[in-house]
Amino acid sequence: MTAMNDVQLEKVTVNIGVGQGGQPLENAKKLLEQLTGAKAIQTLSRTRNPTFNLRKGEPIGVKVTLRGTPAVEFVKKALVARENKVARTNFDRTGNVAFGVPEYIDFPGMKYQPEIGILGFDVCLTLEKPGTRIKRRKIAPRSLPKKQRVSTAEAEEFMKKTFGINVV
Which CATH number goes with the domain that contains 125? Predict the structure, then answer.
């Protein structure tokens, strides 16, 4: 296997969807900044949905993107909260892994805070192989060849080898 076929962790996105603005959104932002140690940004609704009383452009959640060593450390802690188990259905065909932590108090080092309440969060890992910049570059972008895409089996193998998880 060449170095161009090694799977690597590109980024980790941590998300809390609240569904409304105001104090619950501020609590989620405060919690996410405590969990990750990075600045959280608001996510906005893309469409109007009268069923949930949402308007386009209204803040509905917060997210943080982590890269490098902080991303790896955060994933290790989040997997401890999940007892190092990830379902096979959490892997998609393009090498992404996503799982949720139902309560932040399961996260190592976090204690219950009455002003925040009980919130859960989602962790999304984006895996890629070296050379995938060709699809994102500004000048002369190209489509990614099939051998350069991360398959589900490769993503599972990477997660087992790097983080020692059990795929159930």
Answer: 3.30.1440.10
Rounded to whole angstroms, the Cα distance separating 8 from 101 reads 23
Answer for the pair 29, 42: CB distance below 8 angstroms, yes or no. yes
pLDDT of 1-29, one tens digit each? 577 778 888 899 999 888 777 888 888 88
Residue 86's alpha-carbon distances to 13, 61, 93, 160, in angstroms, are 17, 24, 16, 10
Q: What's the pTM value of the predicted model, to 2 decimals? A: 0.81
d(CA 16, CA 119): 8
Whole-Å CA distances, 50 to 19, 24, 54, 55, 59: 13, 20, 6, 8, 15
Range of the domain at 157: 3-167
Domain count, the chain: 1
